[in-house]
Amino acid sequence: MKQGDFIAVIFCLFGFLMVPLLTMACPECSAEGNTGVIVVDVQGDFTTAKKGSLAVNGADQAFIKKVGKATKDLSGKGFIIFATQDWHPANHVSFFTNHEGKKPFDLIKIDGRSQVLWPPHCVQGTENARVLVDNNLFRAVVKKGQDPKYDSYSGFQDDGGAKTEMDKILKRNTVRKVVVYGIATDYCVKATAIDAADAGYKVIVVEDLCRGVAPETSKKALEEMKAKGITILKELDIEKIKGL
Ligand code: VGL
Ligand code: ZN
Question: Which of 35, 130, 139, 165: CA 20 to 30 A from 171?
Answer without folding.
Answer: 130
